[in-house]
Design brief:
The protein has two helices and nine strands; from the N terminus they run E-E-E-E-E-E-E-E-H-E-H. By secondary structure, it is mostly beta strands. The termini are far apart.
C-alpha cells in the first residue's frame, strides 16, 4: 500500500514563490481476512459477494520526501529516500472488507474477476509519535530527514483482481464402496 501528498509550506516574502514538500510513503502489510461469501451458479458463471473482517500486521513503512525551496533565482531542492518510519505507525490494524466477483468455468479451470473495498477501522499513526518521538526521545533521523508532522489517518483501499485458476489435480467421482457388514446383509437378502 502506498500513498503520496504535496504541501505548500511557507510563503516567502514574495507569495509567488511558495516552498513545496512532496511526500510519499510505502507500507508493507500482512493482511489476514476472514469473511462470509455467498455464491450462485448460472451455467459456467459463478458470481459471488462477500463481507468480512481483516486483521493487519505492519511489516515495514518507509517515506521519501522532496523539499523544493523556490526562489526568484531558481529552485533549491533536497531529496531523502526510504527513511524507515515504522516507529511512527501502529504494528496492528483492523479493517472491514466487502467485495463482489465472478468466476467463469472453462473445463476444470476458472477465470476470476474480483473487486474489493477495505475500510480501516482504527488510526494507523501511533499516538504521541507525530513529532519524531520514539519512547520520549527524539529520533534525529526522523526529525531531520522527514520534515513533516503526520495527522491521524486510517488506511482505506480498493483492489481489483484478475486471475486464472489451473488446478494441479484432476478430481474424480468416488464410487460408493460397501462395507463388509453391509455386503453380508446384501448377500442374505439376495439368497
Amino acid at each position: 500500500k502506498s500513498f503520496s501528498g504535496k504541501t505548500s509550506l511557507f510563503a516567502n516574502d514574495n507569495a509567488q514563490f511558495p516552498d513545496r514538500l512532496n511526500y510519499s510513503e510505502k507500507q508493507t502489510w500482512l493482511d489476514i481476512p476472514i469473511y462470509v461469501r455467498y455464491q450462485r451458479t448460472y451455467g459456467n458463471w459463478m458470481p459471488y459477494v462477500y463481507l468480512g473482517y481483516s486483521a493487519n500486521l505492519l511489516l515495514n513503512a518507509k517515506a521519501s520526501t522532496t523539499f523544493d525551496n523556490l526562489e526568484s533565482t531558481g529552485t533549491n531542492s533536497s531529496e531523502v529516500n526510504d527513511v524507515n518510519i515504522s516507529s511512527q505507525r501502529k504494528l496492528f490494524s483492523t479493517a472491514w472488507l466487502g467485495g463482489i466477483g465472478t468466476r467463469y468455468r472453462i473445463g476444470l479451470r476458472y477465470i476470476t474477476l474480483e473487486a474489493r473495498y477495505s475500510g480501516g477501522m482504527n488510526n494507523v499513526l501511533k499516538e504521541g509519535n507525530e513529532y519524531a518521538l520514539v519512547d520520549d526521545v527524539y529520533n534525529t533521523d526522523l526529525l531531520f530527514k522527514n520534515p513533516r508532522v503526520d495527522s491521524d489517518f486510517r488506511m482505506n483501499h480498493i483492489s481489483v483482481m484478475i486471475g486464472y485458476v489451473w488446478p494441479l489435480y484432476k478430481p474424480r467421482r468416488i464410487e460408493e464402496k460397501q462395507s463388509w457388514l453391509k455386503s453380508i446383509f446384501n448377500k442374505k437378502e439376495n439368497e
